[in-house]
Design brief:
Blueprint: H1 2-7, H2 13-47
Length: about 50
Amino acid sequence: QFRAMEKEKTITEDDLKRAQDEAQKLTDKYISEVDKMLAEKEVEIMQV
């Protein structure tokens, strides 16, 4: 979606890069949170 906006000249190339970086940071944050929950759940399951 960001690339389409850049092609239509709705956003600049710098804004595109910034938006992609922010989206990647959010993705990485939530992947980390899910990994943490998964590890906790694995420990919980192994105790049963």
